[in-house]
Amino acid sequence: MLIVDAQKPLIALGSLILGGLLMAAAPVPPTPDGEITAKYKISFINIDMARANLAAKLEHGLYTVRVGYKTTGIVKLFATASGDVVASGSLESGKPAPSAFVQTARENSKDSKVNLAISDGAITSVEATPPLSPDPNRVPVGDAAKKNVIDPLSALLMPIAKPKEPGKDALAASCDRTIPIFDGWSRYDIKLSLKEVKTVDKAGFKGQAVICSVRWVPVAGHIPDRKGTKFMAENKDIDVMLAPAGTSGFLIPLHIGVQTLRGHIDVDATEFSAKIVMPPAE
Fold first, then answer.
1. pLDDT tens figures, 135-192
2. Could you give the CA distance from residue 146 to residue 149 in angstroms, rounded to a whole number?
3. d(CA 100, CA 123)
4. C-alpha–C-alpha distance, residues 72 and 77, integer Å
5. Cis peptide before 130 (omega within 30 of 0)
6. Terminal-to-terminal C-alpha distance of the chain
7. CA dihedral 164, 245, 269, 44 (to 10 degrees)
């Protein structure tokens, strides 16, 4: 829904950077405490379109992530959009285990809302308005599509990978994952693969970052023959640059680029900070 819906580009972009569930098992590490913040500029074909703020709070093995956004500049003369998205849960073995996801948005005076309850990776309740429009060609969202998933925002806390092979770069290995997403309307996979690791200096971050190529794979809730669905499923022009958020063990996006049917969208961090305290290992 959100990836192919051109009216919801900001939330859609958030889902492109969602983090890894398929990590190798490892000893339970100490959970970080602190805050991670970032500010983003969103542009469409090089036209300033919107601003977004990200704030993640980590405390006593729990987390809350919030993203707020609104249109800005000349775009406000033609269309307005604003929204607030919040996800919360616990940190288990260095990964987010979500329990709740709430999204509210207004676009040109039209409201939408998603409210998910999640337990052990399964969606236990869903409220999504407006509902999907009836269509006999739409792939139904059954119970199986709501299991072993993560919400779009919790996975913004993407764990840095623990390489399966000795000597392999952890940042490079972080792109080797598939992320199963349920957003309230639809179920899809985000497949990441390594593009490059490079040194960057932007938005308050200086150091090694990783660039992942991204593919969107629809699973349920979509209409296969729709033009937007076909375009995004075949789209090879999506990438994300991820940088370590201090000593938290998580990656946060510095840049996202997405080619859409109407043009290219870029999301660039303008500020980036992490204040993290790691408790001693038990």
1. 999 999 999 999 999 999 998 889 999 877 666 799 999 999 999 999 999 999 999 9
2. 6
3. 9
4. 9
5. yes
6. 43
7. 40
